[in-house]
Amino acid sequence: MKNQKDTVYSQPLEKIGEFRFDGQVADVFENMIQRSVPGYSLLLEMIGVLTNRYAQPATNCYDLGCSLGASTLKIRQNLPADCTVIGIDNSEAMVSRCRHNMQRDHSQAIATIRLENIEDSAIENASVVVMNFTLQFIADDKRADILKRIAKGLRPGGILILAEKIHFENASRQQLMTDLHNDFKTYQGYSDLEIAQKRTSLENVLVPNSIDQHIARLKAAGFSTTELCVRCLNFAAFLAIK
17-37 pLDDT, tens per residue? Predict the structure, then answer.
């Protein structure tokens, strides 16, 4: 599918609704995330590197909140042939496009894409689990249980790669990172109107945690080691090892 330019918030909207991963967003999502998340390309490469290192033969590898399948593909392309990658998303529009993208890929590992809520997903015989900017869209009081279920479903030595927008407790640092993130989006060609309208749509939908909150929650979930492996401005990825 052609990578369309993101113009979702380019015109003034009388009413700005909550951000949704619908067909309109799915059509432009690849462009949207590349232009909105600094360090995204590096993160995808690291998912490939970490999958290559930690994926265990004859196991399942999960991409929770797979969207169009960019990280699903990175997992699949770095797996042993006897592994299965399972992509899960609750957006029908995203799942449809992700399945199409998987069909175009000819890696040996099996790929299965499921339409379901990750709160209901069983994690079984797993060696790699990826949550790429997904946990932040789930109610805060449900996040700990999801991480515990992931840890329980991982084999010893298995990993979770958790990428999230992060919040800083220090107000000055938070403001600086917010300003630099806005500068990044402006540099990518977004107008002040687009930035403001999208920020409004994400309010109370995307709720970030701090680095310390993530590390404490991962430890409580049962992971023995947690490392901050990628960070660019107010976006970070954690490597959690069971």
Answer: 999 999 999 999 999 999 999
